[in-house]
Amino acid sequence: MWVEKYRPESLDEYRGAKKEKKKLKEWAEDWEKGDGPAMLHGPAGTGKTSLVEALANDLDLEMVETNASDVRTKKKLKKELKEATRQKSFFGGQKLILIDEVDGMGSTDRGGTQELNRIVDETRFPVVMTANDAYDSKIRSLKNKSKMIEIGKVHTNSINAHLKKILENEGVEYEDGAVKRIARQANGQMRSAINDLEAAAAGQEELAKDDLQAIGVRDNEQEIFDALKMVFKTDSASTAKRATDNLDEDADTFLQWIRENVPREYERSEDISSAYNWVSKADIFNGRIHIRQNWKLLKYVYLYSTVGVALSKRQKYKGWTKYQYPSKIRKMGSSKAARNQMDSVSKKIGEKLHISMRESKSTIPFLSKLIEHEPEVIDQLELDEDDVEFIEEF
Asked: Does the model's pTM come out above 0.85?
């Protein structure tokens, strides 16, 4: 996929964030003076992970990457991360530790945040963390000890220039207006812009404005479409695994999207059968998580629904696919009013339970049962009649 093929290999190749690149490099070079960890924060799709990879290449550091949303408990962090922060690389070189999505750790992650604090305090190598929401209360202690570097949306002109370079490398002619439109619609997200460009231009000799009907108008749900493309359009396990990086959807919702769109992307019956086999396995683990609250199983939900589904096909399918909303989401969120209601309810729940909106959405099915037996919860969460009706019908 072009988003992987054209990932920047150095800070010079990284588009935009001139001041932020300088800050990050200076921090890494002076880290041994005791500056503590760094935290890159900003919207999904703005290239936080790519920036760290480029930094590691420039400084000739081995990058060790883990995702805090997957490694959530004290035990798992000790096993998979602590030793990496103490021992030199296999060839005796220096390391750069990347911990993605620290704000994705849940409030019930059994000492995970406390252990992560200890790890960054005791590390022998520089640690960079990323977060979409640096003001999440769960990571306040990590934020307070970190050098904060905000990675904002990429300027349209920078996106436009990068897209043109990609087309030139691919040997695709283009209309300036067509490329500019893709750059504008990306809303500052380089990853989304490249995915849209590939959807519109791959396999063509020329990109014109008329070819942009395939990508439509970007909306708040575009990130999930980007993730679906990364799963369905690749036969690379590493690319598929990256599909949910920085995705602002919980595992259950993402699984519904995959389930709904497998037969829209895959044509051969054996590919569809194999994909649904992996979806069913992911669903089994997702159910175990909800029953046992055993969040260490979450990595299997993501692996089966991304890598498993991606590798189910014998070969990649060409062309553009119109992905559809899952039927359940379509019923509950097909209208703007319903989506606004979801956000309103999730915000109220999140504020009262001190969890993120993303997490609060996953509690709604549980609350519908709780309200039935414990109606006083309605007053405790300050829910109005519309909120209660929405939860009960979810």
From this structure: no
